[in-house]
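hey can u check if this looks right to u? its 336 residues, i copy pasted from the old doc so theres a chance i mangled smth
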Amino acid sequence: MKAPVLRCLFGLLICVFALASENSAQDKPLKKINWGVTSLSGGNWIPWIAKEAKIYEKHGLDVQLILLRGSGQTSAALLGGSIFASPVALPTVMLADLSGADLINVAHTVPGVQTKMLVKPEIKRVEDLRGKRIATSSLGSLGDFLFKYILRKNGLDPNREITWLSIGTPPERLQALFSGVVDATEASYPYDLQGERKGFRVLFDARKEVVYPSMSIVTRRKSIVEDRDTVMRMVKAHVEGIAYFRNNKDFAIRVLSKQLKINDRETLENSYDTYKQDFIPVPYPIMKGLEATYDYVAQTRPEIRGRNLRSLWTQALSPSWIRAASLKSGMSRNKA
């Protein structure tokens, strides 16, 4: 057989082996994990983005998104092993830690709670709330606590100078404001926007007043020790999901529309603009300015005051590593 023919055959064999090797790598099974979605809201946007854009698959993960009800059910599912990671409210992580559980924060996606104080037009300052009636979802709820914390910070006694009314759903609270039953109400998006369209005004935005990190990535210390690689890949996918969200507006809006079954373009656009401000480009675990969180937990577990909170954040994934992952995803170049 002539040399040119041999060379062609040899080259063909190399291509065949290369393709076989590439297909073998692609056929490597994805690691299956469950991620807990805590509510049908824009706060859970990033896992939906990472799923729809196949970012999890890119990082070797087959992620199933499972809808759960709040941090209590979610923390129980984490500790029971039915989910691998999920957002869990920081107070729940603190309380679990006090009880001997091994929940741990890997990152925080949002630095504050998405809720506002919507008031009658004549109320211009926080002091104008003295003697007024304020609607909240329930006494002792997170919104109730946050607003009382903000009022105390501004010199009011929320227990003596304010009348609080527990009114169940956001539409019911908004209607109570419209009808004059209350002078102010707790309102998250899109109900704050609906109120503003009717001439009411936002007195303050809780996420700008109080450091109260949310939409975290929480897993177990056991997972950090026994399956650190999967945790690393999960966080990389999450960081990349934030970058993808910020750089692909139309795709992000389609994903939210699908998940929440909302077709109103103005609502979707406003949701995008709101969460683009809220999602932290480089999602370090938040460890400073947590006085409100301490106060919230100390109401039932005062011993939290003596606890070293650094035990609640993983040391296996350092802030410098998270920043490196963010730089790779282009977050530092796309903060706008």
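The radius of gyration is 24 Å.
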